[in-house]
Amino acid sequence: MPDQHMIDHEGIIEDVRDNVAHVKINCESACAACHAKGVCGAADMAEKFLDIPVDKDSFTPGEPVRILIARKLGLKAVALGYIYPFMLLMIVLVGLTAAGVGELQAGMIALGSLGPYYLALFLWRKRIGHAFTFILKKKA
Predict the structure, then answer these.
(1) What is the pLDDT of residues 44-64, one digit of tens each?
(2) Where are the domains of the chain?
(3) Helix 84-98 to helix 103-112 angle, to the nearest 10 degrees?
(4) Residues of the chain by 3-state class (helix, strand, coil), percent to 5
(5) 55 vs 21: CA distance, rounded Å
């Protein structure tokens, strides 16, 4: 029975070097598993890669694994990537519009305010990345 507090994905070990496993995950949208995906054209499937620290002798390339992360960390990632930037955009837009700035100019400035936010995320990516801890388990 899966743990309700964990997000679980299946993956395959691509490579293990310097105690870091390079794991491939196939991410599918809901319609990628649909029986009509060949007709629809909206199906989406992408490969993602994660580098997860492991003991070098514990995993081998080609081995199927499960990748686990705490659900609260998944929500934190969504907040950092989508919710906080949306809130920033709306606060800047409403604030500038209330201050009497024209709508077009306020919209452009609000969109421009996202640049420094995402630049800060990029510059602090290693520090933020340390907060996200993945657990790698052998697939039973």
Answers:
(1) 557 788 888 887 678 888 888
(2) 6-138
(3) 150
(4) 45, 30, 25
(5) 9
